[in-house]
Design brief:
Blueprint lengths: L2 E6 L5 H11 L6 E8 L2 E8 L2 H6 L1 H4 L5 E7 L14 E2 L3 E9 L2 H10 L11 H10 L5 H11 L2 E9 L2 E10 L4 E5 L2 E5 L2 H4 L5 E4 L5 E4 L4 E4 L5 E2 L4 E2 L15 H7 L1 H12 E2 L4 E2 L13 E6 L1 H17 L3 E6 H4 L10 E7 L5 H12 L3 E6 L5 H5 L2 E4 L12 H20 L5 H22 L3 H12 L3 E5 L4 H15 L3 E5 L16 E5 L6 H12 L4 E7 L12 E5 L7 H20 L17
Parallel strand pairs: 18-19, 18-20, 20-21, 21-22, 23-24, 23-25, 25-26, 26-27
Antiparallel strand pairs: 1-4, 1-10, 2-3, 2-4, 5-6, 6-7, 7-8, 8-12, 9-10, 9-11, 11-15, 12-13, 13-14, 16-17
Helix pairs in contact: 4-5, 5-6, 9-14, 9-15, 10-14, 10-17, 14-15, 15-19, 16-19, 17-19
The structure holds 2-deoxy-2-amino glucitol-6-phosphate.
Amino acid sequence: MCGIIGINSNKSVSASIINSLKKLEYRGYDSAGIATLHAGSINEVKSEGRVDNLEKNSVVQNMVGTIGIGHVRWATHGLPNSINAHPHSSQNVSVVHNGIIENSTLLKKFLVSKGHKFKSQTDTEVIVHLITENLKTENIINSITKTLKSLHGSFALGIIFKDQPDLIIGARRGSPLAVGYGPNENYLGSDSYALKSMTNKITYLSDGEFCVIKKDHVEFFNEDGIKINKKVLELSSEEEKHDKGDYKHFMAKEIEEQPTTLKNGIKEYVDASNNDINIFNFPWKTNEISSITLIGCGTAYHSCMMAKYWFEELTTLNVNVDIASEFRYRKNRFKKDTLYVFVSQSGETADTYAALSLCKSKEMKTCSVVNVIESSIARDSEFVMPIHCGTEIGVASTKAFLGQILILYILALKLGLLRKDLKRELFNKKLKDLKELPDLVQQTLSIDNKIQTISKTFNDAKGSMFLGRGFSYPIALEGALKLKELSYIHAEGYPAGEMKHGPLALIEEGMPVVVLAPRDDYYKKTISNMQEVIARGAKVLLITNKSKDEIISENIWETIEVETTGADLLPFLLTVPLQKLAYYSALKKGYDIDKPRNLAKSVTVE
Ligand code: AGP
């Protein structure tokens, strides 16, 4: 996934492009580049690593030109170096691209046969030479339509031309792209977040469309080059201030923000005065839904897994979960009475968006649980449940995870009550527990020093296991993912009851194993599974909840007791020490906690 920006102005654009690229770094930060048009030539500068490296380049600091494009990259084809960084340019054309061109090898062969010389290993470069080739025989609009029709795969493109000193072309298929409108200047960007500091007037392109951006107006076209009209949206213009405050990293701040973000989410959906849950404008009657399919990627998928247990506990609905990249190609049995729920912090994850598009094409009921309400997934779902967490900057999701599972729990509670699967008094009890949750998370956050010490053992190990049963199993998966993506140590989340069917062979003397065993219905069984790994030399970190009952086991290396609440809400509390474990492990290693290697905040390619 990459980030694109383009600006067509009556003043120099390089500084604004650099500033926008910094906002887009959450989409990829392997390398960055900028190209401007000035005095009939394309000036291009690219650098490896962060946008700061590009900004320090003296050529960029003196770059002139009132038309330009910029790009931050997460490598899909070719090493993350300055040669493969975007823009890619020929004499006449310069292109920035987010997506994957699946027939690039074939196109490259054809273009080389036409004498085109390639400099990079990227798929993107074929677009540059294809446009250049088509411009030999077609005008600008026809060369674009002809080029786009030759491309297989996904793209969001920004294109400038040496011989067209007054326009930028933007084109979209499968990767998000937005147009912004400013005073005597107009913009192109991967999403509204990149454009927000310049404008709140936005038009989103749909798949197959392209646009011609001039300083004073923008024209839109369909894939056949026919002019079309598009809506201009006015987005909320408050520009959130993103700074770390007293924290060393955004992730640390976002972990500590969780009591507040949970309070925000509860306030949005819980009607305290009537002791009820309001899901305004929910478009379906409960008798229209007999099953739910939850779909997401990564942490969002773990949210879906967590929700499965709750929907099964609180309703009689059939519940399925799927990883978006699997769902989109599976031979699914689409049913009209199934509600498809798409969970995504960014709302731009390509696989989740593709799964949503597939369900929409089948005219299914679609609902999304997102943090970014102006995102593609939110815009294209029939119904949206925002999680109200505020921008999450840390690539490793923390507050958004708790926000996602909060909204999913609220949805399960409400549907359980409406379907009469859940009695009102039990609903009231659970709602009361829910309202107390933010304070319990606050208290659990204070478990800090012990985790800092424990994290060293995980750093010294060659791998670890995270075990849980029932409500704790999805949290075991999430805890393992956090450790992997932050400290680059292998960690595996596993159902505690499954260890004896193979993975027990992994256990050796001193291997750290996290066992999530809250005092719920699975407690005793999980403790027995824990003994199985202790007996083989594992160093067990037991995470349970405070209780007057003694822990029924010994030879436990370390124990962490979180606050206590209803069994179905304990996952919120169990998550917190695991987030901190991963954070302190990475801190000790000195890794880049907010931008871990090889990752990006929003994976907008498949
Ligand atoms: C979570 O820590 C990861 N950064 C990643 O797994 C993320 O949850 C996944 O890419 C899905 O992103 P989304 O929620 O924006 O769709």
